[in-house]
Amino acid sequence: LWNKHKVQKFNTSEEFEEKFISHVEWTLARSLYNCDDLAAYQATSQSVRDNLVIDWNKTQQRQTVRGGKRVYYLSLEFLMGRALDNALINMRTDTSAQDVGKTDQVLTKGNTSREMIRQAMKDLGFKLEDILEQEPDAALGNGGLGRLAACFVDSLATGNFPAWGYGLRYQYGIFAQKIINGYQVETPDYWLNFSNPWEIERAEIQVPINFYGYVDRTNGEQSTLAPSDWIGGERVLAMAHDMPIPGFKTSTVNNLRLWNAKPTTEFDFSKFNSGDYKNSVEQQQRAESITAVLYPNDNFEQGKELRLKQQYFWCAASLHDIVRRFKKNGRPWSEFPDAIAIQLNDTHPTLAIVELQRILVDLEKLDWHLAWDIVIKTFAYTNHTVMQEALEKWPVGLLGHLLPRHLEIIFDINWFFLQNVEKKFPHDMELLSRVSIIEDASSDRQVRMAFLAIIGSHKVNGVAELHSDLIKTTIFQDFVKIYGANKFTNVTNGITPRRWLKQANPKLAQLISETINDPNDDYLLDMSKLTELSKYAEDAGFQKKWNDVKQFNKLRLADLIKRLNGGVDVIDREHIRNTLFDIQVKRIHEYKRQQLNIFGVIHRYLEMKEMLQSGGSIEEVANRYPRKVSIFGGKSAPGYYMAKLIIKLVNSVAEVVNNDAEIQDLLKVYFIPDYNVSKAEIITPASDLSEHISTAGTEASGTSNMKFVMNGGLIIGTVDGANVEITREIGEDNIFLFGNLSENVDELRYNHQFHNPELPKPLKRVLDTVESGAFSPQNHHEFKPLTDSIKYHGDYYLVSDDFESYIATQDLVDEVYHKNKKEWLKKSILSVANVGFFSSDRCIEEYAETIWNAEPVKPE
Ligand code: 26Y
């Protein structure tokens, strides 16, 4: 019977239209007469979701039946962006191209459903682009780490891996950034305002989660190693919300499970009976605060109790879910690590290690050491930073209060670990205190989460070669000594070419598929096919087409900027072909050195002014400092004073430079407010040059560098993070590197402590100008903290050390871009031709092979 009434996907535009209309009428309870763009977006998404759900169900069934190893990616952040356009690119219909050829241009061309839906929408009276614009970004992340998780789930599904993501369903994503009078102002991102068609509420999946309380071992057991009862405290429910994750050119649809906190229906009778009904309801309601908001810090740890609650809530719910699924198979516990791999995205989910140990010992009554062996084999940990201020530590008191049993287990883990260290390196008390999970240096003891993550995992990886080497010689040096170097490995980050090439840059994708004769876009799965492009790197006809695509994308960005700028154009469209778009978009952070960039802009401006003042003509100026627009974007953590000041400086400089008639339109500066994933899709394809200029050794990898290169932009960058491997892949002739190397950073910093840095002349002039109030006439001292940090506070990020080589390299950029366009285009083409390594598909394959030992489960 079930088979007779089998649900079916829509395969043609006809069938889509039918679906669409029924969703307008039934799901939205509206009619075509009052169906606006928002309703059309929702009906379209519901229809597409229906298709995905069919494949989602089949995928889950297949993965269960085949019983291969499952991978779980635990991440507190999934910076997904919009889902609809991505689904249109990835989604498969059931009918092959040959069957539908006539109605369905797309299935033969590029194999996506995008064109089919575009046509259908048009027939229904809508424009696809306008419909796509209705979708709010799912902005459940801060920056690189969260976007990496989003690229990973795309590649996991595309590679047919039985893999789920686990995260939190924040009601407020990363704040929306407004720029008011040049200052960042944060406004809440209540993204679920208009119901979210991409989530499936699983009301039947509710996991009770406990906090606080105490540990009970009254049944005669004294040892913390014995099964123990954790009793009492606060209880909340974790309810699952699932998002379908479609793979590209496969019917595999994986799952992203996000937990939502809800009050339990249990009632605290003591409170109830005391007559305080209203108060006890309010207290229950507070459960929901656990998943209310994403913490907006990027690479900076604050140690807030609610954040620890979020972490445990999410780890416990996910582990419970994973264990429940495992137990259905009836396999022995010893096989748990053969069935399951859990990847920890940074230390945020480290409590999952402790929770699994607790489940095995306290609930499943396994011997402590047998349990611990299972735990270690199950987990692997990815590190994303070497910076001290980003390493998580929780006060012992706080952790013990919230999770009393977990603290006991942590102490036991530490005890056994230190015993092993002592055996291997007898009497080395210094070593023991350096590697102890419990930091005992200060008055309040802290749990070092990174150490716990290393000790509880079988592999630890960094995210680019340089960074993976650095963790072995700096923060985790002792652990290499203890475990050997093999426990530590590298998996260089990647990005999904579906979103970051096909979706963000349809014009370039089309030119590529035509040129390499790949009408079905197979190159998006095998990026080595792009090397074909090298043949045309110097072909004048091809260069022209390549350049035309870039101009199209620059105009598209100019339109966006005009819209964001209240309808006033910033960029001179007439000269756009000869305007270098120089872009730095990423979180604002001193280590990423947006201050170096804006100081460089000020330097350029001062040079231009000086030429004019000493009698030079505007033509001469234009010859030396040709047309350029300098674009910034990115959010600062709300409490990060210096980062906010950098934003203000950029806006203040823009105000002065953009209104200086003397330099005409040769230089423009613009700060794009509220940088996010959907804006990145417009910004990235438009760059001629992008900046990745962190102090060497501080940026673990960077991923926007890969995005820009994939879109034919050249890079100016330091020898840091993945810039190193980008250089190796695309060739050193095709990248503009500058600055001190990471091996010199310590010494330079050390020296600055004893004498203030000697400022190179051009930098001194820049800082003097800033201090003169040239950009802050109301308040001359406004930017003093920025200039002082360089002049008097040790210049920790080495702006003074890298400034001259930065501006010299910028001169070189101008030279090539304006005097040798052919050379520029050649570099751009060769970059794309050799960017294949940075597909997240490659990255996921490396994880699967070297860390998870997991195999794809392919549809028939
Ligand atoms: C401790 C907590 C407040 C915290 C929250 C967010 C700590 C770190 C983060 C986010 C870190 C992050 O985004 N790191 C970036 O990860 C990218 C993906 O691996 C790297 O490309 C990038 O270099 C790194 O800064």
From TrEMBL:
GO molecular function, one term: pyridoxal phosphate binding
InterPro entries assigned: Glycg_phsphrylas, Glyco_trans_35, Pyridoxal_P_attach_site
Named cofactor requirement(s): pyridoxal 5'-phosphate
Main EC class the enzyme belongs to: transferase
GO cellular component, one term: cytoplasm
CDD domains according to UniProt: GT35_Glycogen_Phosphorylase
Keywords: Carbohydrate metabolism, Glycosyltransferase, Pyridoxal phosphate, Transferase
Tagged with keyword Metal-binding: no
N6-(pyridoxal phosphate)lysine carried by residues: K707
Entry coiled-coil feature ranges: none
Statement: the UniProt record of this protein carries the keyword Glycosyltransferase: yes
Recorded catalytic activity of this chain's protein: [(1->4)-alpha-D-glucosyl](n) + phosphate = [(1->4)-alpha-D-glucosyl](n-1) + alpha-D-glucose 1-phosphate
Function as written in the Swiss-Prot or TrEMBL entry: Allosteric enzyme that catalyzes the rate-limiting step in glycogen catabolism, the phosphorolytic cleavage of glycogen to produce glucose-1-phosphate, and plays a central role in maintaining cellular and organismal glucose homeostasis.
Family per record: Belongs to the glycogen phosphorylase family.
The protein's name: Alpha-1,4 glucan phosphorylase
Organism: Lachancea dasiensis
Higher taxonomy: Eukaryota, Fungi, Dikarya, Ascomycota, Saccharomycotina
